[in-house]
Structures are given as structure tokens and as C-alpha cells.
Write a structure and sequence with these properties.
Elements: E1 2-7, E2 17-23, H1 26-37, E3 44-46, H2 47-60, E4 66-67, E5 71-72
Length: 77
């Protein structure tokens, strides 16, 4: 299982937070996110890209989103 991180737009009620989803691949994680939140979210990251973004965010003074409880795709377990 791989970890994917999804962010929300600033105006969203969950803006400033991110949703981790564990899935077998990028597509499965995206499908689960859309199933739960529709298209009302920002960006999808692999775990490696997310760690890269967090390092860049700290350098430029951006706050890094707080993680919500993770979601696990049943098919991936």
C-alpha cells in the first residue's frame, strides 16, 4: 500500500489540512478521494513529493497542512 496526500483549497472548510489516503496506486487513491469529497479538493501528491513540498514550504515560510485521520482503501489492504 502506498500513501497519497490530498490538499484542500483555502476556501474549503478543511482548508489548511490534508487528507492521507492509503491505496494500491495513484488512481485508486484519487477515486477514493472523489468518492468522499467529490471534486472539492486541491492537489494530489505521492508521499515522496509531499515530503519534498514540505521542505520547500518551510524554506519559504508557508505553513504545512495538518493531516486528517488517514483513509484506507479496502481493496489495497
Amino acid at each position: 500500500m502506498k500513501k497519497f496526500i490530498f490538499t484542500f483549497y483555502t476556501a474549503h472548510p478543511l482548508g489548511g489540512k490534508c487528507q492521507p489516503i492509503y491505496a494500491k496506486d495513484y488512481s485508486q487513491a484519487r477515486h477514493k478521494m472523489c468518492e468522499i469529497y467529490g471534486n472539492n479538493w486541491g492537489f494530489q501528491y505521492t508521499e515522496a513529493k509531499w515530503e519534498e513540498w514540505k521542505k520547500q514550504a518551510k524554506k519559504i515560510g508557508c505553513s504545512v497542512e495538518k493531516e486528517l485521520e488517514p483513509i484506507y482503501c479496502e481493496e489495497a489492504m
